[in-house]
Amino acid sequence: MDGSSPPTVEDARSFAGVPDGTERLWTPHRMAYIGGENKPSDPDDGEQCPFCSAQHRTDEDALIVHRGRVAYVILNLYPYNAGHLLVCPYRHVADYTELTDDEVREVAELTRTAMRVIRQVSAPAGFNLGMNQGPVAGAGIAAHLHQHVVPRWMGDANFLPIVGRTKAVPILLADTRRLYAEAWPEGDGSGGS
């Protein structure tokens, strides 16, 4: 550049998907969720909270896999991957540090059992586990803590979400819930049924 012509400004959208040394997980299928679909207008209102309201519905209707004593396991309605489970305390509490000792133990034990059940039913190659604490950290429902248990398979992140804006989930949520619930062990250590 000799300083006589203005710099060329390129539209960043033309670079989507171009390798640049940064690994990205593109999930455009989740835009409905990110945009607020089914989110409570008042996040602190337990009546509007999807995790609180799920507790009062049937397991089949709410996609609950297992009910423990102080926590329960539910399928994610907007899964990152097939079989994506959430482990939630019954109490409407936002922060991990607010959990009681009993809740910490049961959330941990239900997470371990969920991994065992998913391995038995679906044979994943690995898992992503985690809690997003606060909206800035990616929590869609930040007011009610939940632990993600996401099974992963080789090749499960393919071209479909990027090119076709489509996520291939090879099994219906209701079928996944039924299979996981049927495989859930009787004595899972959570104190629930």
Describe what you observe in this structure.
The protein starts with 30 loop residues before the first helix and ends in a 10-residue tail after the last helix. It is α+β, with helices and mostly antiparallel strands and 193 residues long. A 5-stranded antiparallel β-sheet has the order 1-2-3-5-4. The chain is globular. The protein has a single domain (31-183), classed as HIT family, subunit A, CATH 3.30.428.10. The chain has helices at residues 31-34, 50-54, 59-62, 101-122, 160-163, 173-183; strands spanning 64-67, 71-75, 85-89, 126-130, 147-152. Helices cover 26% and strands 13% of the residues.
User: What is the number of E strands?
Assistant: 5
As a percent range, the share of strand residues is 5-15%
| Terminal CA distance | 72 Å
Characterize the largest beta sheet: strand count, sense, and whether it forms a barrel.
5 strands, antiparallel
The rounded Rg comes to: 20 Å
Annotated CATH homologous superfamily: HIT-like
> Can you tell me the CATH topology?
HIT family, subunit A
Q: Helix coverage percent of residues?
A: 25-40%
What strand line-up does the widest sheet have?
A: 1-2-3-5-4
Which architecture would the CATH scheme give at its second level?
A: 2-Layer Sandwich
| CATH class type | Alpha Beta
